[in-house]
Queue: 2 jobs
Job 1
Amino acid sequence: MEKTLQVLNRLERDGVIERYAIAGGMAAMFYLEPILTYDLDVFVFLPPTPSRLISLSPIYASLRSAGFSEQRGHVVIHGNRVQFIPAYNELVEEAVKEAREISYGRTRTRVVQAEHLMAIMLQTGRPKDRVRIEQMMDQAEFNQGKLEGILERHGLTAKWRSIRRKVRP
Amino acid sequence: MNARPGVNRLVRRLFKAKEAERRRLAALPFARKVAILRRMQRQAAKIRAVAVRNGMRRRTPRTSSRAFKSVEGIWKQRAPDGLTYQRRVRRE
């Protein structure tokens, strides 16, 4: 895992990506008990291109030249299946900008903050996201005021109230 | 009415213990959790290998369910004609 994170840091240093933050199941696991997940989801800011089209090709090309292979939309980096997801809306952009700096062994990396992760799960709304929100509410340390601010800014307050009623009636 | 007084208390204690264990795991360092995840992935791969050997294909392994390995599990799997084995036997 540490080697994988070093590769991500190298991509950032080389300017292939502008900034990244770990998200998805792996980020949830940072705040929760270990949960079974198979890939490492990474939100990325891509450098602007003249055509203004979003393309992951530079990332894939760079990793291919470093000897890593692609597998069904993922790149296998030192045994970890990494999925690069360009920041697709304002909430995700904010999550990447304000991601938390952590150390993994001797490597520095970034993980999406608990409050942003919960808001993203709420926005995505798949059954497994709802389960994880419930787990986050039980196990993770998060700032209620900060979460409410994020939900308000991104129009998720009503959705949050409805899910809260179901989880903690 | 509970036929065995004390059972509810026991169940409550078990749930509390489980909850405490969850919190303990959640508080572990990230690297330690990733090591546990690797073990979980290996275990899931083994279960999947058993399932595939038995001709039961699933896209994702259900590690949380013992049913996957048990007789009831097979009973609820789908036969090649799309019916569950349970329904198929009933039809036959």
Job 2
Amino acid sequence: LAALVIASGRPFWNYLRSIAALVLLWYLVSRWIANPNLMPGPEAALPQLRVIAETGELWKQVTISMRRLVIGYSLAAVAGLTLGVLMTLVRPVEMLADPVIELVRPVSGIAWIPLFLVLFGVGDVLPILVIFYAAFFPFVVNTYAAFRRIPPNLIGAAQTLGAGSLTLAREVIIPAALPSVLTGARIALGFAWASIVAAELIGSASGIGFSIEWNRQLLHPDRVLAWIAVVGMLGFLTDRAALWLERRLTPWARPSGVEMDDGR
Amino acid sequence: MMEDRLAPRKRPVSGGMSRLIAMTGLVFVWWLGTTLSRSKGLPTPGGVVGSLIELHKSGILIPAFQLTASRILTGFAIGFLLAFVVGWLVATSSAVRSWLDPWINTFRSVAPFAWIPMAILWFGTGGPAAIFIVAYATFFPVVISVIHGVRSADHRLIRAARSLGSGASMILREVVFPSALPNILVGARLGMGAAWTSVIAAELAVATRSGTQGGLGEQMVITITFRPDLNFLVALMLVVGVIALCLDAMLRWLFRRLVVWP
């Protein structure tokens, strides 16, 4: 039992030790710079987390951002999955959509912000549209690739064994495609999460991204760092939740190689 | 029906021809939409081409492009080199890994754009703030690819090299590095994508707060504040998209040149 405790406890202690060192380093750097307007130390920034939590600001802005995230992401999921499946099933859709996607995709969601700003102004529509745009492409591309990559001999084998269309879809096609679709969903979540911060920072008057920038303008860098920490924690939690869900739903999938989540 | 559609393809779907047709179709639908709609001020294909020519003639486009390009290349180079060194150390030494892994995970969770306000505080509203954000955005996809690539080197090959008498540095150079290279280059592509997005984001954010001139992102903000001409804006977006395509094509070409082994 002792060996088990040590085995499971070790990574945790390593983690704690390393984070403590990081906070210490932060403290030393802030002392060295000695200008709280440029680099507030942990002793100044961390209590600000409690301040924004107690004034209710934290909860208010986080719910605003999360609402936008959920709306934009769900719309992207529905549209992306539908188009991905249609591209697999209907050849004309594939021939039309594939080149258009390849042409439009390089223009990142961020580059649309000024146009949306002119068309829709500052409000809910801009961040939701940017999230939709950012999350849409990982959904489409991965759904489409998922169906493409199903080994044809699996389908052939099932048919030889007398599987009908319905059985084939339920027992072969969906289990084979699901891991890649879910990986796409997780990448899309990462993109959506990064782009909501950018969209709110540039073109919104509420939400987490706005709060970061607003506190800079109020010359509250300690609070800016507190909000950045909030972004980090929420980003970490959403990524872990998505990873957990992915492993839970598709235990048969091999772990995917390189992590592709990144700000976009 | 589905079974047939899932059969392997003989010819690729996105050939040059179908791409051209799709592009023409896209432009036609856009033209039709803007012609039929009554609202004024929507960007039209003709207007965008006109704006592109005007952008070039007025001498805005090239300097803006050069400034943005210098920022992204500097930021990418810093982020990539740092990520390569850190990733290599983390992957080859367990002591370094136990200290640095939590740091990487902590900062990776923070979206790069969240640092823009701090970067403005630290570096002002000029180029260095954008370079910082680009380097930050580049670092994480590259570092993770380097760690993954180095650690996934085949142990049988390493043992074979060792039993043939090669030293540690030779194994790293001749076995580990070549097997990590494909992953590292994939990381470079992901990092370049992130870098390009973040340089635009940084320039947009900086310009909306200070009204400075300079790169392509700043030019977009100037366009919507001083001359709300959407043709200009879409022309700039088009430039942004074309550059992204070119950067990706360049890295893909590099990939094919460098990774000659299967």
